[in-house]
Amino acid sequence: MNSDLVLAEKAARQAGEVVRGYFRSEFEVREKGVDNPVTTADLEADQILKTTLLGARPEDGWLSEETVDSPERLSRSRVWIVDPIDGTKEFIKGVPQFAISIALAVEGEIAVAVIYNPALDEMFCAVKGEGLTLNGEPVQTTPLAVLESASILASRSEVARGEFDRFEDGFTITPIGSIAYKLALVASGKADLTFTLTPKNEWDFAAGTLLLTEGGGQFRILGRDTQRFNQPDPLVKGLVASNGPLYGPLMQMLELPTR
C-alpha cells in the first residue's frame, strides 16, 4: 500500500477516536468569527493530525483550518492540507454529518486523500490513479446522465438561507453538513452532485476533489484560474462537483464555464 495513505489513514483514525469521544458529550465551544465555531475536539484532533503526519514526514508543509498559517508551506513540494473537523456546527448539534479531512498535495496536485466520518465509521480513501475505496471496498460515482433527475447534496446553512430555493422544483435536495463529507458521498455514488457558491478554503475540499475524480467524477474550483492546491490564499469563491455525465449540464445550469 502507498505509505502516505497508510499514514493518513492512521492519523485520521487516531484523531477520529478523540472526536468520537467528545461527540454528543461535553466540550468547550468558542467563536473564531461570525458563525465560525471551534471546539475542544477540533483543537485536539488538529494536534494529533499534525503530530502524526509531520512527525513521520518532518520535511512536509502544513495547512490546516486550526493552525495559524505560515508562508513556509509555499516553499515545500509536499504539503498536508487538513481540516480536523469539517462540519463543526453539525458536530456541536450532535448531527453525524462531519468528517476529518486529510489531503497530501505534491507539487500542487492532490496525491493522497482520506475523509473519515468517525461518528459513522466511514473511511473514504484515494491515491491518485488508483481509484476510490469506502471501508476498503471499491466505490464510484453514479452513472446518471439526466440532470433533472439528479439528487443534490446541499449545505444545511445554505438551504436555511434560501440559497437552494430556485432548485427545489425538479431536484431532490438533501441538506448535509460538511462539504468534505458531501464530496465523499458524491464520489462514492450516494448522491449525484453537490455545489456551493459560498466561499470555501482549500482544507474544506482538497481531499474531496481527489476522492471525486478517482471515483469517476469532475469538479471545478470557482474564482481561481488554477485548479492546483497550496496557493498563497487558500480561499475560493465556491466549488462545483458531480459525477462525470452531469458535469457539463450542471455547469450550464449554473451559467459557469466548464474550464
Would you kindly provide a written description of the structure presented here, covering whatever features stand out?
The chain is an alpha+beta fold. The chain folds into two domains: 3-138, Fructose-1,6-Bisphosphatase, subunit A, domain 1 (Fructose-1,6-Bisphosphatase, Chain A, domain 1, 2-Layer Sandwich), CATH 3.30.540.10; 147-253, D-Maltodextrin-Binding Protein, domain 2. The protein has seven helices and 16 strands. The strands form four sheets. It has a seven-stranded mixed beta sheet with strand order 3-4-5-6-7-8-9, with helices on both faces. Strands 11-10-12-16-14 form a five-stranded mixed beta sheet, sandwiched between helices. A two-stranded antiparallel ribbon has the order 1-2. A hairpin with a 2-residue loop joins β1 and β2. α1 packs antiparallel against α2 (40-56) and α5 (179-187) packs parallel to α6. The protein is globular and about 50 Å long. It starts with a helix and ends in a 6-residue tail after the last helix. The model has no long low-confidence stretch (mean pLDDT 95).
Spatial order of the strands forming the largest sheet: 3-4-5-6-7-8-9
The CATH topology name of the largest domain reads Fructose-1,6-Bisphosphatase, Chain A, domain 1
- The CATH class name of the largest domain reads Alpha Beta
Give the % helix.
Answer: 25-40%
- CATH H level of the largest domain: which superfamily? Fructose-1,6-Bisphosphatase, subunit A, domain 1
CATH architecture of the largest domain: 2-Layer Sandwich
Radius of gyration of CA atoms, rounded to a whole number: 17 Å
Roughly what fraction of the amino acids lie in strands? 25-35%
Morphology: globular
Helix count equals 7
- The average pLDDT score comes to 95
How far is the first residue's CA from the last residue's CA? 34 Å
